[in-house]
Every structure is written in structure tokens, then in C-alpha cells.
Amino acid sequence: MIQMKQVSKTYYGDQVETKVLESVDLTVEKGEFVSLYGKSGCGKTTLLNLLGLIDTPTAGEYWLDEVNTGTCKPKELAGLRNRKIGFIFQSFYLISRLSVLDNVILPMKYAGVPRKEREERARILLAEVGLTERMNYLPSRLSGGEKQRTAIARALANHPAYILADEPTGSLDGENRDRIMEILTGLNQKGHTIVMVTHDKELAGYSSRIIQM
Ligand SMILES: Nc1ncnc2c1ncn2[C@@H]1O[C@H](COP(=O)(O)OP(=O)(O)OP(=O)(O)O)[C@@H](O)[C@H]1O
């Protein structure tokens, strides 16, 4: 379960302070599919980065599965992130010099999964997103939808309970968008908790709860 209590985030730049989140209380139960919905600049990505332990709040508490993340050392946070969270971004962030298969294998390497097991699992995940025939391609040879399906397989590599998606269909056309949303809905039905950032009302409609920011 995700629990934020009175979480605030302010960015401090050269002589400028940007207060983005103020005293946010948020609970996401296991198995929910939640959309963070709102206009550009309202802080959706900021909130998702806090949830994904990519960034830390300036005030308040963030509890992830009974762990008060504010008390964790950087190494512990990295461990939590690796074990529990899968990230999907609008611009995919695939590693261009690695094949599709190796992109999916990489997070398992970091998590210390034995070589044979990580390759087997990557093949299964890529089959699940319909990419068996693209396994040895470099990302530059993939379509946008294929890139995002690779990123989804990679996000699933370490069996994360939580999937955090930041505008996952933002750079895709209608058909690919529907396919990605079907995959996310299927993952939610299998038990993954999903938090998705979107500014698109129709996409927010796929989720079981919309949080208007
Ligand atoms: N690293 C940073 N340093 C300073 N300000 C930042 C930083 N990251 C974000 N901001 C500011 O915080 C505000 C919220 O940004 P954020 O990206 O969270 O919004 P968003 O709702 O995801 O927007 P969009 O839909 O356009 O992606 C913006 O005004 C942005 O300029």
C-alpha cells in the first residue's frame, strides 16, 4: 500500500523557489488502478517521481508497504525501487546500444538474478507483449508502440507490485495507444497496482479512480 501523509515538494533553484506540492495526503490500496489527472505543470510528474522513490519530499512522510521511506538510506531506497516498482515513461528511455532482449534483462542483472533465469524471463515477458520477433532488434529499429511494449516488459522484469506510468501513451497514435492501455488494464487485473499520470480524460477513464490535481 502507498501512503503519503502531508507531503510537500519545493524545488530550490538559483534564487527561485518553486512550490509544487503542498500537504498532499494520498493512499493507494494494493490492486488499484489510479490516474493522476490534471493540467500541464500541476505537479503530476513530481508526485509520480516521489512515489517511485526517484525524488524525495521536502516535508511529510511517504510509507510504502509499511516502510517509512524517509528513514531509509539511499541504498535501501534503491533496493526498494528495484524490487517493488516498475517505471514506464512517455519517451521510453530504452538503452540504444542494447537489443530489446538486453534492455529487458538489464534490471534483472542489477537485481542479481542468475543469467539463465533472467534470459528466460525476458523472453517470456517479451512474448507477453507480442515482441518475440523483435527481440534482437536495437530500439532504433522499433516503432513507437514497440518501444513502449519493450519498456513495459522491462518494467515488469523484477515482478514489481507497483507500476508507475508517466503519460505512457503520450507519443503514440490511436491504435498503439489502445494496445498499451489494454496491456496496462490486463496487468492491473493480474494484481499489479498502477498509478498513471495523464492529462487525457479518456485515458484516465481506464483507471478505477481518478485523482484530479
Ligand atoms: N527539477 C525541477 N526544478 C525546478 N522546478 C521544477 C523541477 N521539476 C519540475 N519543476 C516545476 O514544477 C512544476 C510541476 O512540474 P511537473 O513536471 O510535476 O508537472 P506536470 O503536471 O507533470 O506537467 P506536464 O503535464 O506538463 O508534464 C512545474 O512548474 C515545473 O516547472
Automatic annotation (TrEMBL):
CDD domains: ABC_MJ0796_LolCDE_FtsE
Domain of life: Bacteria
Protein name per UniProt: ABC transporter ATP-binding protein
Any single Gene Ontology cellular-component annotation: membrane protein complex
Key word Electron transport present: no
Domain ABC transporter: residue ranges: 2-213
Keyword line: ATP-binding, Nucleotide-binding, Transport
An annotated Gene Ontology molecular function: ATP hydrolysis activity
